[in-house]
Specification:
It contains 14 helices and 13 strands. By secondary structure, it is an alpha/beta fold. α8 packs antiparallel against α11 (about 335-365) and α11 packs across α13 (about 385-400). This is Phosphotransferase. Pathway: Carbohydrate degradation; glycolysis; D-glyceraldehyde 3-phosphate and glycerone phosphate from D-glucose: step 1/4; Carbohydrate metabolism; hexose metabolism.
């Protein structure tokens, strides 16, 4: 764990300096740590992080969210991937969806936050240049472009009286959402289908931002989007100590080989597949049997079934028996079910310990390990039994005798509410 911490500190420094390549991008969000007092009124939010797109209207009174209205729109596949997927189609769909949502409401350029949950670089609060697509998106004409500018063009074309106040990603939104409730909120974290961290950093410690903004106040704090899922990629200097043959197979079969190596060990998108491959090896060794059919197919063991196996504390592991019988038609002995739980438990423990090592290291770097809140969203953290407790145990191992008080708080909908609250914070 200490080896990972040391390497992470080096990569963070390089990313903040911005003069040489770093596996963690350390992207300035331009969202500043400010007082939330006195925020009232209507704020809008857009949330684009997958093939479902959301529009939200938040009403704040004395900095508290008193009402939320939202609508979800399914993005047609032709705007997401394939030869027909282009920027005009994608952002035109977003603009027309917003127009449907506001209907006859009289809006005149209200504060609007836009959660764009893809790697982007920023030169201002309301600009975001897409670095690369993830999550199956391959829409042409967007990489290297300012997504707020593309959206503004479509707003104008479709007569939508809005403009982006702040563009963020979901980790920034998660942090800001909790910050409105608790000013000790220090980190925003996603542990779901992806893995990422954002945190408050002193402007004085962000040389690349100061070079681009010489008049910046070094005493202020800004939210940094780490893009930490890519840590230690592509060479795996320190992750090699916790990696195995299944990680290599996962990476080799992925569209982003040698990238996102931490994310592939931590996130729910891969946990089930890692467990499935390990279970098939146990079958080859004759330890378990009967894994024909679904379980022999790629991605045939989803992470929510893994969570169900981990949660089984019955004497004869009947929950595991039910999961395997109902979903895979497999009858198992008690010893086989113990093997299932052991493998699934190993995958979960490793995920939690890696996530906690990274989170705990970032907290330690800020100097607030003695009292801080970490806001976390995502299905792995929320729905995997014992995951928060495993993280706290890892903190103890990481810090040793050093006292710490890190509160892990489930913070829902940072990607939706967080966008609107970021617009409120910065307007």
């Amino acid at each position: 764990m200490k080896i990972v911490q040391t390497e992470l500190f080096k990569e963070m420094e390089k990313g903040l300096e911005g003069k040489e390549w770093s596996s963690v991008l350390m992207l300035p969000s331009f969202v500043m740590r400010k007082s939330v007092e006195g925020k009232s009124g209507e704020y809008y939010a857009l949330d684009l992080g997958g093939t479902n797109f959301r529009v939200l209207r938040l009403v704040l009174k004395d900095s508290k969210v008193v009402n939320v209205q939202q609508a979800k729109f399914k993005i047609p596949l032709e705007h997401v991937t394939g030869e027909t997927a282009c920027s005009d189609g994608l952002f035109g769909f977003i603009a027309t969806s917003v127009k449907k949502f506001i209907g006859d409401s009289r809006v005149n350029y209200p504060p609007l936050g836009f959660t764009f949950s893809f790697p982007m670089t920023k030169k201002s609060l309301n600009s975001g240049i897409l670095v690369r697509w993830t999550k199956s998106f391959t829409t042409h004409g967007v990489v290297g472009e300012d997504v707020c500018g593309l959206l503004a063009d479509q707003f104008k074309r479709h007569s939508v009286p809005m403009g982006v106040t702040a563009v963020i990603n979901d980790t920034v939104g998660t942090l800001v959402t909790e910050y409105f409730e608790d000013d000790t909120a220090l980190l925003g974290v996603i542990i779901g289908t992806g893995f990422n961290v954002a945190y408050w950093e002193k402007v004085a410690n962000i040389p690349k931002y100061i070079r681009a903004n010489p008049s910046a106040d070094p005493s202020h704090s800004m939210c940094i989007n780490m893009e930490v899922g890519n840590f230690d990629s592509p060479h795996m200097k320190v992750l090699k100590y916790v990696a195995n043959e299944y990680d290599a197979k996962i990476d080799a079969a992925s569209p982003n080989k040698k990238l996102g190596l931490v994310e592939k060990m931590v996130s729910g998108l891969y946990m089930g597949e890692i467990a499935r491959m390990a279970l098939l090896d146990l079958k080859k060794q004759g330890i378990i049997r009967g894994l024909d059919g679904k379980l022999e197919k790629k991605n045939g063991f989803p992470s929510w079934h893994l969570s169900g196996c981990v949660a089984d504390d019955t004497l004869r592991l009947r929950k595991i028996s039910s999961i395997l019988k109902k979903n895979y038609g497999v009858n198992t002995t008690l010893e086989e079910r113990k093997a299932f739980r052991l493998v699934c438990g190993w995958v979960v423990v490793r995920s939690a310990r890696i996530a906690a090592t990274i989170i705990g290291s970032v907290v330690l770097r800020t100097g607030y390990e003695w009292d801080c809140t970490v806001a976390i969203d995502g299905s792995v953290f929320e729905k995997t039994p014992g995951y928060p407790e495993l993280m706290q145990k890892a903190f103890k191992d990481l810090y040793g005798e050093q006292p710490f008080n890190i509160r892990l708080v489930l913070t829902k909908d940072g990607s939706g509410k967080g966008a609107g609250l970021s617009a409120a914070l910065m307007s």
